[in-house]
TrEMBL record:
HAMAP family: DusA_subfam. It comes from Leptospira idonii. InterPro entries: Aldolase_TIM (IPR013785), DUS-like_FMN-bd (IPR035587), DUS_fam (IPR001269), DusA (IPR004653), tRNA_hU_synthase_CS (IPR018517). This is tRNA-dihydrouridine(20/20a) synthase. Catalyzes the synthesis of 5,6-dihydrouridine (D), a modified base found in the D-loop of most tRNAs, via the reduction of the C5-C6 double bond in target uridines. Specifically modifies U20 and U20a in tRNAs. Keywords: Flavoprotein, FMN, NADP, Nucleotide-binding, Oxidoreductase, RNA-binding, tRNA processing, tRNA-binding. SUPFAM superfamilies: FMN-linked oxidoreductases (SSF51395). Residues 12-309 form the DUS-like FMN-binding domain. The active site is at C97. It is an enzyme of class 1 (oxidoreductase).
Amino acid sequence: MEKQIPSYRLSVAPMMDWTDRHYRYFMRLITKRVLLYTEMITTGAILKGNRHRYLSFSREEFPLSLQLGGDNPSHLAECAKIGEDYGYSEINLNAGCPSDRVQNGSFGACLMKEPEKVADMVSSMKSKVKLPVTVKHRIGINGKESLDDLVYFVKTIREAGVDRVIVHARIAILEGLSPAENRTVPPLRYEDVRSLKSEFPDLPVEINGGIKTLHEIDEHLSFVDGVMIGRAAYENPYLFSEVDSLYYKEVNPGYSRSEVLEHLRDYIRNMSSEGVKPHHVLRHALGLYFGCEGARFFRRFFSENMHGSSVDYTVIDRFLSESKQSNQVKA
């Protein structure tokens, strides 16, 4: 039997306000195999809030990882079990977000100060679920930013049973930089992630940060097990139109950009009964024609026409008709 290619070979990063269920459905029209993530969901939201609102998803979104944010091992374990019962593919712990809100809750990137605590979290979740438990983290934080610090952190959570680590190849600066600045100001140190893989040859290591092209993906896969794409997956989603065949030896969905829009039209029509408005979905598709002739026309049309109480799924038919008549959009 041929060895199965792991789903973590390529993934789309969890991004707050971006990787919601509508974005994930949209991406599944382009790639069936890339691992997708929820937005970070805090343990408090699951245990005290409207659980179904945060955790519901469609079967088309598989494979799908649930990213949790929290600092209490027992709460994380309980939420991991809930996630398993909902049917997620894996459970991921956020140990990389540098936002003030996350820091005030003593989780996210500030967890890298306490490797033993993160190990306790991993161990607690592993004791409750049969799913893979993974950790997404930085190469360090200010004050703990050496390769030795990184190796110690991963060694500690590895001993607790972590199944995979996803490493953003920048440190997080916890004071003085905004989350957006933390994605660009600290320099990328890809060599640290490659060194980490050399230290832990049997642990799947996935790299994240600043990766935008198929060429760059190829280069990184020569050194590590997986590549996670963040902003580029949102800005240029059709980049993934070839990855199933290139990296998983399977056929991509094969939809043209206009066919993707036709499927989104049907999705919007079906979701309208749940109160989903066209802009809830279409805002995620504004990069669909990235790099194509007419991309500006596409973005302008939907930016100007997807809002309003009278707008429905037929806005896509209007676009397809107008673009065909004007010949302004070419994929």
